[in-house]
Amino acid sequence: MPHSNISRAPRQHLTERVLQAKTAKNLTWAGLAEGTGLSVVYVTAALLGQHPLPEAVAEVVAERLGLDRGAVAELQTIPLRGNVEDVSSDPTIYRFHEMVQVYGTTLKALVHEQFGDGIISAINFKLDIKKVDDPEGGERAVITLDGKFLPYKPF
């Protein structure tokens, strides 16, 4: 039976334990996700408190991290999602806010022109990030947001 959190505190506390164990054991997000059948993005988001994990996956990652049965149970709870009430000052997170501030209306206009009136789901959604070489030198991040379009329905 799924259980739900009504506070961010339990998952925030667990996230701290996850990060400490990950660092102490010199693990990677990819290594933690390996063999779970879930994407590294989903497992990372779950371990950072944003998604529940299926029981079998919670058991695998908890074992890799050396976490107890209580952590296995908590990893399966449906979290209170979202991290902050306002815009984060962390430079990496803020850049994503900045991208939406600059390109949000453009994305909205193009989505509506191509699909009609509706939204792109963050529930039926996939996220991927890849590092690629920049032809001008250095590296680039290719971030793919893949969400199902959900049209508004008149009633």
Automatic annotation (TrEMBL):
NCBIfam families: cynS (TIGR00673), PRK02866.1 (NF002773). The keyword Lyase applies. Gene3D superfamilies: Cyanate lyase, C-terminal domain, lambda repressor-like DNA-binding domains. Catalyzes the reaction of cyanate with bicarbonate to produce ammonia and carbon dioxide. It is an enzyme of class 4 (lyase). It catalyses: cyanate + hydrogencarbonate + 3 H(+) = NH4(+) + 2 CO2. The keyword Lyase applies. This is Cyanate hydratase. Residues 82-155 form the Cyanate lyase C-terminal domain. It comes from the Bacteria. GO terms for molecular function: cyanate hydratase activity; DNA binding. CDD domains: Cyanase_C (cd00559). It comes from Pseudomonas syringae pv. pisi. Keywords: Lyase. Its EC number is 4.2.1.104. Belongs to the cyanase family. Pfam families: Cyanate_lyase, CYNS_N. The active site is at residues 95, 98, 121.
